[in-house]
Amino acid sequence: MTTTFPDVTISTDRLVLRPFEEDDVTALTEMMNDENITAWTTAPHPYTHADAHAWATRQSHAERTEGRGIVFAVTEFLTQRLVGIVHLQNTNWRTRATEVGYVTAPWARGEGYASESVLAVSQWLFRDQGFERLELRTAADNTASQQVAQKIGCISEGVLRNAWIVRTQNPDGTWTDTRTDLIVWSLLPEDLDEGDEYDSAYGYEDAYSFGQRAGANGYAVGADWS
Questions:
Q1: CB atoms < 10 A from the CB of 57, how many?
Q2: Pairing with 35, which of 27, 29, 49, 136 sits 20 to 30 Å away (CA)?
């Protein structure tokens, strides 16, 4: 049984989803220090240059090679700028099921990049990798992330009560941990068969043609802010 994802790059009309590179460190540091990402994810705060360097050069590769999942750096096709992350995690190779998390950079919100990139990864996961279930969990108050789940065709399955911790910012700039519910969503292959918006734009290729390796260790619980 295969227990690691292949090393791939996925493309859409507007985006290239590829392995992280050392050149991403500066943009990754800036992106992960955004207050919305701090609020909805478990990423370290402040997110340092060292954190970003470890993600891009070490942790990312281990996530794929050790069989936990795979993470893509989401970049604009035209500018090559980093605009987000998509992370497949908690992968169960026997049941062919995995969980997706995502974040979008503050300079790229409102463009539909989260839904476009997650849907492209879903298509690859189901059609090329033979997976049968993709799960997504969103914090109860993270309405923007819930809109992404709905847009790509996910079905809401229920609520995990008091199952997650988010961070709220205090007037003095400090952060306080607060418990919250998680909404559980799922996407199955037949959900995509009903029609997917980016199908004609979808493509992928072996990332070794770029001399890179895929993956990333992540912190995200589906997070996209418009």
A1: 14
A2: 136
Side chain identity at residue 14, one-letter code: R
Instruction: Express each pLDDT in 88-147 by its tens digit.
Output: 999 999 999 999 999 999 999 999 999 999 999 999 999 999 999 999 999 999 999 999
Dist CA 64 CA 111 (whole Å) = 28
The neighbour count for residue 206, using CB atoms within 10 Å, is 10
Q: Per residue in 132-164, is it b (16+ CB within 10 Å) or e — as a string?
A: ebbbbbbbbebebbbebbebbbbeeeeeeeeeb
- Distance (Å, rounded) from C-alpha 127 to C-alpha 42? 31
In 3D, which of 41, 113, 101 has the Cα closest to residue 68?
101
| pTM for this entry | 0.86
